[in-house]
Amino acid sequence: MAETIETPVWREDEQSKVESWRLHVLIEAGFPLPLAERLAASEADLHACVRLVREGCSPVTATEILL
Questions:
Q1: How far is it, in rounded angstroms, from Cα 36 to Cα 63?
Q2: CA-to-CA dists, residue 2 to 5, 8, 48, angstroms
Q3: Whose CA is closest to 53, among 43, 64, 42?
Q4: pLDDT digit string, tens, across residues 5-64
């Protein structure tokens, strides 16, 4: 009989949880939903997104910089 080896896999439900959390943080920081969704699903630095807006950058400009 062949031996089955389980390997940890990045599961979609875990990725969804991370994106949901990122979305929440971005909305709380003042990003409108469409921009927050784009950023949450991207590899953009979440802390940089929030920092830019808190330092006076518009969410649109912050999104353009980070994407």
A1: 9
A2: 10, 19, 48
A3: 64
A4: 665 665 678 888 999 999 999 999 999 999 999 999 999 999 999 999 999 999 999 999
Closest CA to 54 of 21, 20, 31, 24: 31
The tokens for 30 are: 């003042």
- Note the pLDDT of residue 47: 94
Q: Is the pLDDT of residue 4 over 70?
A: no
Cβ contact 57:34 at 8 Å:
no
Instruction: Encode burial over 17-45: b for 16+ CB neighbours within 10 A, e otherwise.
Output: eeeeebbebbeebebeeebbbebbeeebe
Rounded to the nearest 10 degrees, the angle between the axes of helix 33-41 and helix 59-66 is 20
